[in-house]
């Protein structure tokens, strides 16, 4: 009778554009559930559903990632600096007493108010507002980087999960093949060496399953760390819908580069340095201090008004060093903007090329190599049961199918990693 065990996972591998590779295989052996967390803890949100999608993982990370939350505090810090920048200088109250005897003693009470000249306050506010914009841009960059990192970590864990399922299927296949070899040895149809080879192959598969389980545990822990969870993720991961991977033309993505968060941040930094240069220029004009008060002579009982104006003479210090440094920093920021634009364009083109190559590999593996490898194993297993092939033929066909499946997983992971790198700079559906 035609062997049935070689069909493990083949239907799933060959049905649909990018399905889970082992949807019908046995679930991987996971560690015991973690202790119940507090209801309001961030990582407890991931323990509600039996499965976790990529969109859920991204949303959870964007809402709970500690680094991103720390970045939002930077915006609040910038708000405080903006408030401080708009405040006027405080007036100064002074009381002076002259003379020792009562007849000649005088007392002067006066208030001095500094008046900022040259648009210093407006320039200071402009710098503070750009600092706030820069903090917001930093949050956008962190969010884009986090989205890409979560996507990469998700597919690392997904690939590890499916490697476990493939290893479990391979172990089941190896056990059945080993039993068949032992029966043929008992019947005297083949040499006992065939059974030994089958047992060794089964041991190798067991080792591979152990390593795959360890890799899965590490990948799950790294994914859960994206939203600040100290525990390894327990939920089963699922593939996104196939249409999520559709890529627009490269020219369309390149046209969106100017709105990339990295370039927006570089432009804001350039504008901020230009505003700082304007502030330093305004600092060249000294401030005026106006004084109003009254002077009372104790002996004669007379009171006289006191009016004064004071302004520093810009003879030596005209803020020339700070102006020069600010201008050079503005030039540096302009060059950094050009560098960021060049690097973003190169990274976008490189990620797009990697995504296209990976998609070509996926198509070839799914339509040609996987069916061929499956047919070869089918034929070798049937022929082995009928005595037409040796166990080495079955083992070679099994190894070829396993390697082809591994290549498919690698290509799929590379595809989504490339898409994650693209989404660091542009958004697309």
Compute the CA-based radius of gyration: 36 Å
Helix content: 55-70%
Please give the alpha-carbon distance between the first and last residues: 49 Å
Q: Name the CATH superfamily assignment.
A: Outer membrane efflux proteins (OEP)
Given as residue ranges, the uncertain stretches (5+ residues, pLDDT < 50) are: 1-43
Q: In what range is the share of β-strand residues?
A: 5-15%
Major sheet summary line: 4 strands, antiparallel
Number of helical runs?
9
Cα shape = elongated
CATH class: Mainly Alpha
Q: Give the neighbour order of strands across the main sheet.
A: 2-3-5-6
What pattern of helices and strands is seen along the backbone? Answer: HEHHEEHHEHHEEHH
**Average of per-residue pLDDT values:** 82
Based on secondary structure, the structural category is: alpha+beta
Q: Can you name the CATH architecture? A: Up-down Bundle
Count of spatially separate domains:
1
CATH topology: Outer membrane efflux proteins (OEP)
